[in-house]
Amino acid sequence: MLLAERHESERLRQIIKELQRHRFGRKAESLPEEQMLLGLEDVEQVAASTEACQDETAPGGRAERARKRRNNRGALPAHLPRIEVVVDIDDKTCPCCQGELHRIGEDKSERLEMVPAQFHVVVTRRPKYACRACEDGVLQAEAPARLIEGGLPTEATVAQVLVSKYADHLPLYRQAQIYARQGIQLDRSTLADWVGHAAFHLRPLHERLLTVLRARCKLFADETTVPVLDPGRGHTKTGQLWAYAADDRPWGGLDPPGIAYVYAPDRKAERLFSHLAGFKGVLQVDGYNAYPKLAERGEVELAFCWVHSKRSAEAP
Fold first, then answer.
1. Which of 15, 99, 158, 169 could be 39's S-S partner, Cβ–Cβ 3.0 to 4.6 Å?
2. What is the 8-class DSSP label of residue 100?
3. Helix and strand element counts for the chain (H, E)
């Protein structure tokens, strides 16, 4: 027990050291917040394992620990469906007088249950009809349109692949491994084909979002480098991902927030002119020298970032 406590204390000291480096160290030495949370997860898991051991070896304090868990866990969302399980006694006869017991109340508790992803096969049947009298032709309902003609997935399946890849950062090869555990053999290239088709069909939505953002009177713009695969060269090349966002909620705006990302192979000013063609208003930006060129046209007013201004002032 003493050795375990010393080990946990050493881990906590290391985490504090890393947090200090993350908070006060140079930018090149700082670690992302997610990396910090990995260390905290390990400590929390060790603490939970120790607590579980205490529940088994010291049942006297089990009720108190359970009460603390109930107080800290909060309420489950009301929109989740409830499946009620009634745990009742077998015999409702009083053990003393043999009379019939009557219900005076109940204890109710809720737990969170997760059902693993389930696959369903959607079978589409299209009956054919013909007239026995005239026997002139066959009538049949038209087949419903598919996102991928001749393909296996429904729209919901493709949406799940997209969310897993881009929102949950789950590569396609790992998704293929997950599906294989359910007996669904899908090659990574097949999933990539689905993503490509979805990207094509979502293009009008992206263009519409960018059009709506350009119609706003205030926008935020920024760009960052992204590594891009470059087949045949053996390494990646550097691309640029431009972001255009609007969110007026902090000061009572009624327009919904929105953000559109646009990829470009470089960060030339021509990219900015193309992305924001027709925009008139205030553009919040950093110190990149392409933005003043946009303002020279007279339709865009720049609002520079205070943080970048402070950095520029402190630079030697």
1. 15
2. B
3. 9, 7
